[in-house]
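User: Sequence in, structure out. Go.
Assistant: Echoing your sequence, followed by the structure tokens.
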Amino acid sequence: MLFYRHLCQKYRLFSSQCSYSAQNSCITSNMGAVLGMLLFRQPYNTCVDRSKLKQRHVVPLPEIMHHTVSAEEIGDRRVLIIGDVHGCLEELQELIDSQQVTCDNTVIIFCGDIVNKGPHNLETLRYVRQLGAYVVRGNHDDHVLEQIQFLKQDLLPGQAVPPRASILHNRPYTAWMRELLQDDVDYLSQLPYTISIPSLKAIIVHAGLHPMKPLTAQHPADMTMMRNILDGDLRPRPTESVDNDGLAWAAYWNGPEHVYYGHDARRGLQLRRFSTGLDTGVLYGGQLTGVFIHPHRQIVSVKAKKKHTDPHRKK
């Protein structure tokens, strides 16, 4: 039991501050997961092989996968992290104006999905760029890059459109992407998958982090798409689903870094000891939410102007 207790602490399946009985319960329920870590988990100092990633990830990888913001860069400015915007420019401007945010007094960081499916995608992208904000890449930012690969190519007469592209070409919401300039595409393609602030013990990511992998071993698909962790087998696996498939990945995350993320609009604002979920569904008529994490913690939000799209509508 002591051996399993040590491994559970090492892989952060529970906090050392949990009660002894709670730790025992966690150890019993996670023995399969711990064995899986022994059999399958990459060593803690192992980085993801970019050549292998490219084979599994169809969009260009940024030069810097994991960006770090230093205390010197922050200086005496506030730090504001904002959830999924999805092209809802009016709500974003209202949030920024209501908190008197400028690049001079605030470090602004977005949790990804700044564009796509919303009413003012191109304008939002350029507004965010003008703000001088930091942004992590989300699945919809990836989605834009994927579609650009098809939208920018001319098919020869009679040439069949690839199966995936045939869906993309016929979607009305791709029209705005045809107005993107190369600078816009380059900007999206260089967005990192995470932003770390060591001085604040904070990590910003779009969807989540696999609780049993180090940052350098995280896969882009997990960081942009994951919502749940499927438990109960020898190798805990991430999944996009929230419907009776495992538990929220954040339920397994026990720090020490606090993770700020978006992507999970169905669950809304999620407040845990070591994680905060900020996607509150502004696109679907909910709210746009942000959180100041320095010098004081404060959650701020504005209501959506309208329901911009149906959450169950297919892309």
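User: And one key feature?
Assistant: Residues 139-151 form the longest helix (13 residues).
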